[in-house]
Amino acid sequence: MPMAADEIEAMIKDALPGAEVEMRDLAGDNDHWAAKVVAPQFAGKSRVQQHKMVYEALDGKMGGVLHALQLTTEPPK
What is the pTM of this model? Predict the structure, then answer.
């Protein structure tokens, strides 16, 4: 069963309070997502560290029920 956008968004926001999350369905199948995450926790972190924080927020769902997630991350401007 694929993960819904609101479920992914909620998991990210729970782990990264104050984050802004913008979800986009890439294939129209609720299985391939693009997420833009802007979070204050990303300040001073490398892109790799930021992505790791998001994957950790998804609690092992990547590669399982969540097949594809294209990530864009940045600290707030």
Answer: 0.89
Closest of 35, 44, 45 to residue 13, by C-alpha: 35
How confident is the model over 41-73, as pLDDT tens digits? 999 999 999 999 999 999 877 767 676 789 999
| Cα 12 to Cα 57: distance, rounded to the nearest angstrom | 5
Query: Any alpha helices (H) in the chain, and if so which ranges?
Result: 5-15, 47-57
Q: What angle do CA 28, 57, 23 make, to 5 degrees?
A: 25
Q: Give, in order, the Cα–Cα distances in Å from 20 to each of 1, 12, 30, 36, 46.
A: 25, 9, 20, 8, 18
